[in-house]
Amino acid sequence: MHLSFGTETIYDDAEFYLNNYDKTGIVGVNGAGKTTLFKVILKQQELDSGTIVTGNARVGYLPQEIDFEDKQKSVWDYLFSARPIKEIESKLNEVYEKLAVADETEHPKLFWEITNLQAQLDELDIYNAENSLLKLIDDMKIDSDLLDMKLKDLSGGQKSKIAFAHVLFSNPQILLLDEPTNHLDITTKAFVTNYLKNYKGSVLIISHDIDFLNAVVNKILFVNKVTHKISVYEGDYTTFKHKYAQEQLLKELRITQQEKEIKKLADFVQKAKQASRTNHNLKRMGQDREAKLEKAIASLEKRDKEYKHIKIRLEPKRESGKVPLEVRNLTFNYEGKPKLYENLSFALSANERFLIVGENGVGKSTLLKLIMKILTPKSGEIVFSQKTDIAYYAQELELLDENKSVIENIEDNNLNDIERRNILGNFLFKGDTVFKKVKLLSPGEKARISLCRLLLQQANLLILDEPTNHLDPDTQAIIGENFREYKGTILLVSHNPDFVEQIGITRMLILPEGKIVDYQKELLNYYYILNTDLF
């Protein structure tokens, strides 16, 4: 298959084959064409030439960014709509009504339609569908209180869990998952991992979560941004990395040998051109070597590029006070819902790393929004030191203006356009990419802009809501190291244990209890593996 966007080649004579029931991880650097491959499979993107054949298989898709079309719909109605039972039943009733008044000559066609629609209902397991959904809800630990809630009222973690349940209940033959573990708590992640390993269908997963890939996949599909080819490797992600590293070693040896041969031929050709006109033998040999040189250059293999990583150094512009933030007797609940916290109190010390833990829906992100005054508490106070400068990283990247360009989202009165472009270059936005509208970017690119904004604020208190979502492992490691060395205070919500360990947490707030404890790795692991003994 071939696909280009303007002068940028995505796939060049790329091909691959996957078996039924394969669990396949899709990997490649940013911009290689991973998500584009999903769009091609979903027929949202046409190829320039070639095809991807899926037969008549039903395809289910979980996008990286969850955006419900009808946000007023209840969670239960949304989940049950994953199987179009009501729509097919409606069509079936229409056909029966036509049959009642139709001429006998039309009966064969109408009977065929009835048989076909009934077969579709049988395939959707119409008589057991509701029980199947209830079991899935129970297995995924979806609180029954959520089922009557409107989609618009869900937290980020709840949205991910509900969207995942929706696509699983649709029971497709091919399942496409784009960063499926973002926002998932460890309990749901454990269930999903086990579910996918035993799934009776094909699963294709784009993920930066290496542990998740290793637990689920039996193949890796590598999209090569340099060659624009696609290769399939047997085994999990770790096995792929070893095989790929070995291939690159052998490739480098081949290229080095090819380059030596090219230099040898080029030297001989140059010598032949400088020879006397009467030295006919050397001239002929030079012409022969020149032809070989052209072929050798044409067949010289390309090295895979060393792709750049972001450069970030977080520096507060001033020291904070001894207590940069204090929460006093905070009480809050959403309209018509039980209280999330009642008389919650805690204070942060300068330069500490403070982690908020708890299952999805207990109010972790809500607490950060209350601190940022995006929401208003029912009672209580949030007090900042006069020396506190705050920077906030939102879980769903909603602080970005989607209708503005990348460079327009980087507002700093002390910087001119050239300086802003230089800083954006450190976050891998080069050339004309700084003028792209944010709404056209991938979640990973949006995350990099959010990190850039964080850097420019030079705050001494960072409030971070799932900062590693959407980021590749290398970038996660880079920002983890920076946050560890950062000379300021961090208030963090994260489902990423490796990242939490890296930045050096000092204390933990456990919700919904409101209990504060000193950081212990064992305690962190306990909360991350809560309820996993059910699998």
Fill in the keyword field for this structure:
Rossmann fold; six-stranded mixed beta sheet; flat; 16 helices; 535 residues; disordered C terminus; alpha/beta; 17 strands
Structure description:
Strand 9 and strand 10 form a beta hairpin. The chain is α/β, with parallel strands linked by helices. The strands form 4 sheets. A 6-stranded mixed β-sheet has the order 4-5-6-3-7-8, sandwiched between helices. It has a 6-stranded mixed β-sheet with strand order 13-14-15-11-16-17, with helices on both faces. The protein has a 3-stranded antiparallel β-sheet with strand order 10-9-12, with no helix packed on it. Helix 3 (85-101) packs antiparallel against helix 4 (107-123) and helix 9 (237-274) packs antiparallel against helix 10 (280-298). Residues 530-535 have low confidence and may be disordered. The chain has helices at 34-41, 75-80, 85-101, 107-123, 129-139, 156-169, 186-197, 210-216, 237-274, 280-298, 364-371, 417-426, 443-457, 473-485, 497-503, 521-528; strands at 3-5, 8-11, 23-27, 59-62, 174-178, 202-206, 219-223, 230-234, 325-332, 341-348, 353-357, 379-384, 390-393, 461-465, 489-493, 507-510, 515-518. The chain has a domain at 325-534: P-loop containing nucleotide triphosphate hydrolases (Rossmann fold). Helices cover 39% and strands 16% of the residues.
